[in-house]
């Protein structure tokens, strides 16, 4: 399956599992997605952009996939992937080409590495650890793209 087909399968699972899933009823529009890209200085890979435009973000059985939304008390601030990515760039020296998808609960961060796009523009999902932890070792590759990552984690979450 392609990354977009994986995201479509992921979205079908999310939308058919009421009671164990929370997602944005009003996902972000194209203008918010483009603003987030300007703020971050990177483009969302196609499968992540598709997820953002369809769901905006979601949580399924404790697997939270960060999306985009504005704070009610400060509508100028974009939360989710944007706020987490900006914070990690500052706090953990995360490269600017990386986008935070999730925290792994063990000190690592699942990220999209937009500096490594494939021919379709999809970015791999890696586990980011700060440079003082990795000491020059390469980061672990988790999935070839957001679609594969989201579908795999969601299938595990609903069968666990």
TrEMBL record:
Originating species: Actinospica durhamensis
Ranges where the Knr4/Smi1-like domain occurs: 27-152
Q: Gene3D superfamilies annotated for this entry?
A: SMI1/KNR4-like (3.40.1580.10)
> How is this protein named in the record?
SMI1/KNR4 family protein
Q: Which domain of life is it from?
A: Bacteria
């Amino acid at each position: 399956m392609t990354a977009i087909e994986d995201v479509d399968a992921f979205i079908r699972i999310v939308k058919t599992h009421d009671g164990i899933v929370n997602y944005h009823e009003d996902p972000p529009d194209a203008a918010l997605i483009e603003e987030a890209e300007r703020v971050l200085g990177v483009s969302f890979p196609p499968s992540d952009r598709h997820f953002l435009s369809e769901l905006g973000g979601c949580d399924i059985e404790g697997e939270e996939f960060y999306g985009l939304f504005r704070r009610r008390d400060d509508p100028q601030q974009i939360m989710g992937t944007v706020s987490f990515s900006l914070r990690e760039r500052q706090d953990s020296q995360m490269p600017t080409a990386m986008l935070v998808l999730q925290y792994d609960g063990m000190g690592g961060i699942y990220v999209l590495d937009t500096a490594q796009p494939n021919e379709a523009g999809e970015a791999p999902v890696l586990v980011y650890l700060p440079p003082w932890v990795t000491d020059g070792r390469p980061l672990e590759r988790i999935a070839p793209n957001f679609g594969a990552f989201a579908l795999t984690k969601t299938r595990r979450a609903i069968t666990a």
